[in-house]
Specification:
With 285 residues, this protein is α/β, with parallel strands linked by helices. The chain is globular and about 55 Å long. The termini are far apart.
Length: 285
């Protein structure tokens, strides 16, 4: 971002090798952090999945963060969120959320997996290359105390922080939540994720389990504050159909100009649809 005043909302996309042409339809400035591609917005190694790109952005812009940052994967549609990310970003921004996930998938408890100690759980972990639940929990808590203990306290203070929170690390965060912690912390985490010997599925999962602890509201003593559960994000079915139509036109013609011509009527149709829906809702029964 330039040195002038930061925009209210910026979208950060972690990119490696997927088609990201859909990001042109996002309604806010977009920064694409690409792995292993020289340039200003580049992560030198494809490590840590999306976490390395998110941390790189925070380190680069800590002193000039936008009011809110939206952190996204490179796929508009995926198993862990309903509908189009374009719609979900629009909804999250409209809710003025200071921190919330854009996903629908909730994480399970690694600690419960340790306690349960059943063969089905172990097989699930083996298939996903997470070794045993005991090894995963011990590794996670050692990492937590080494890198986050100074800022968040010992891991025991947080109980089972891996349970029930939204996973897959797509979120909107207010700059005040990011700046609850010094830039040094994010620099240390970025350096760790680029240089750790842990495989990507493990290092990225450590961050996935922990983002909510970093960004939740805290009082002056650093204790977490309970926040109301935000309303759900709509799947945006009409907009999702429009997005599929845009992609179809792009594949058929492969010309950006065609998409540029298609955008105004699509926006007009969307506005007409919403206006009609409001009228129907307000009509007396």
């Amino acid at each position: 971002m330039e040195s002038r005043a930061a925009p209210d909302v910026v979208v950060v996309v972690s990119h490696y090798d997927r088609d990201i042409s859909w990001t042109r339809w996002l309604e806010h400035p977009v920064l694409i952090y690409t792995k292993e591609k020289p340039g200003e917005l580049s992560v030198p190694h494809n490590k840590g999945r999306e976490a390395s790109a998110y941390l790189k952005f925070i380190v680069d812009h800590y002193d000039r963060l936008p009011e809110r940052t939206v952190f996204l994967h490179e796929e508009e549609y995926s198993w862990h969120h309903k509908g189009s990310l374009i719609d979900r970003v629009r909804d999250a921004v409209a809710q003025s959320a200071r921190f919330r996930s854009l996903n629908d998938f909730r994480l399970g408890s690694i600690r419960e997996m340790v306690d349960d100690n059943d063969e089905e759980t172990r097989e699930w972990l083996r298939q996903r290359r997470l070794d045993s639940p005991e090894a995963c929990w011990q590794q996670l808590t050692r990492w937590f105390d080494s890198y986050l203990g100074q800022y968040l306290g010992n891991h025991d203070r947080h109980g089972d922080w891996t349970d029930g929170h939204y996973g897959s690390a797509q979120m909107i965060v207010h700059r005040e939540r990011i700046r609850q912690h010094p830039q040094e912390l994010y620099e240390q985490l970025y350096d760790w994720i680029l240089n750790t010997d842990l495989p990507d599925y493990r290092s990225s999962r450590f961050m996935e389990w922990t983002w909510h602890l970093l960004f939740q509201a805290r009082d002056e003593d650093g204790s977490p504050i309970d926040e109301p559960v935000p309303p759900p994000l709509g799947a945006g079915r009409f907009e999702a159909v429009a997005a599929r139509a845009r992609r179809l036109v792009s594949r058929l013609f492969g010309v950006d100009g065609v998409l540029s011509l298609a955008r105004p009527p699509l926006l007009w149709l969307r506005g007409s649809y919403r206006s009609l829906r409001r009228r129907l809702r307000s009509k007396p029964t």
